[in-house]
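FAQ: What does the model actually see?

It sees only this:
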Amino acid sequence: MHKLLERQIKRHLGDTATVPSELAKFIAAVDDAYASADADRLMIERSLDLMSRELTEANAGLRSELAERQRTEQALLKEKDEQRNLIRKLEDIHSQLLQSEKMASIGQLAAGIAHEINNPIGYVYSNLGTLEKYVQDAFHMIELYEQAEAGITDQEVLSGIQAAKKKLDFAFLKSDLRALMGESNEGIVRVKAIVQNLKDFSHAGTTEEWHYANLHQGLDSTLLIVNNEIKYKAEVVREYGAIPNVECLLSQLNQVFMNLLVNAAHAIQERGIITVRTGCEGEEVWVEIADTGQGIPPENLQKIFDPFFTTKPVGKGTGLGLSVSYGIVQKHHGRMEVQSEVGKGSTFRVWLPVKQP
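And it is asked to produce this:
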């Protein structure tokens, strides 16, 4: 008999032997029902236990699969970020290469033009020197003739000479001819200086090798090249200090100076001052270009060396000038510093080692 049923009968009816037969049949039926219920309960418990194990195993599998999927997604995201960074670096390098090629092409063009102009300028300069000597000789001869005028007795001949001198305004002709020769010599000297600065700027006649160069000469030649950009906007003040020659690629540093000078001119709205300073501290030299322009807002100071960053209108700037300049300075194992105040101007300072490591 089922233990639970037996305990209840003993509690309420006493000894089961004294139970009437009809009630005994009922108790037997109830006992069968208890046994059947226990069997069903055990089967249900086993089924639930089995299902619980299966669900636990399934959940474990899902968690493992989910964790694997998350690891895969993280790996894909990391790979995507690396690809994005690589693409950005490639774009930066490509842009810098394009800018460098453009500057190299400009340098080659400037060198070619300088070379082509140099030949005719050379013989014009030489001819002007010879012509000036001939003019001086001719003037000396004419002065001798003028001294001989007093000895001319033929009044008709003397009157003709004096009339011709008056008609030609010979006194003015002599002074003006000397002035014309002086101006022509000055002009041709200036043209020769421009040609020489073009050659210096493009570094024509030398290979792209590291050598010691005078930065003041590079600054002067660059200032002459960008003079047309600056002369209507600013007065240039040179404050050169005593600096040694620097081991560098001068043509590339000229690009840096050109970008900084042009940017300084563009920062000035009406009329201002651009100051170019140089100095030396220890084993380093510095070149500083300061302007009295609009200045750079603080939120842009951290971005100015980023490729393609520009505050100029569309079509006015590529945003590569300072980025390329920064790369050139880094290539020279130097550094670039900037200080700016809105409404007062900006100062860029380029530090360069005298000798490359």
